[in-house]
Amino acid sequence: MTVKETADYLGISVDTIYRMARAGELPHFKIRSLYRFEREFLDEWKRRQQMSILENVNKPIKDVI
Fold first, then answer.
1. Which residues have a Cβ under 8 Å from the Cβ of 16 and sit 6 or more positions away?
2. DSSP-derived secondary structure letter, 26
């Protein structure tokens, strides 16, 4: 997927996609200077993000701080 397609798929801006990819926060690969994304890897990334949030929701507040 292109950066634009990825932004549409995740519902965030193109600038945020570039920023997250450069920071290594999103799974991606590059073809020369072009960022590309695989839907299956993005789906797994989303699942892991959701699991992390759920784990923190279930912790007592003193453990989160």
1. 7
2. S
24 and 60 Cβ atoms separated by less than 8 Å: no
Q: The pTM is what?
A: 0.77
23-60: pLDDT as tens digits? 999 999 999 999 999 999 999 999 998 888 887 776 66
Look up tokens 């799974």; give the residue: 27
In whole angstroms, give the CA distance from residue 6 to residue 42. 9
* CA angle (21, 23, 28) in 5-degree steps: 30
CA Rg, the chain, in Å? Answer: 14
CA 3, chain centre distance (Å): 12
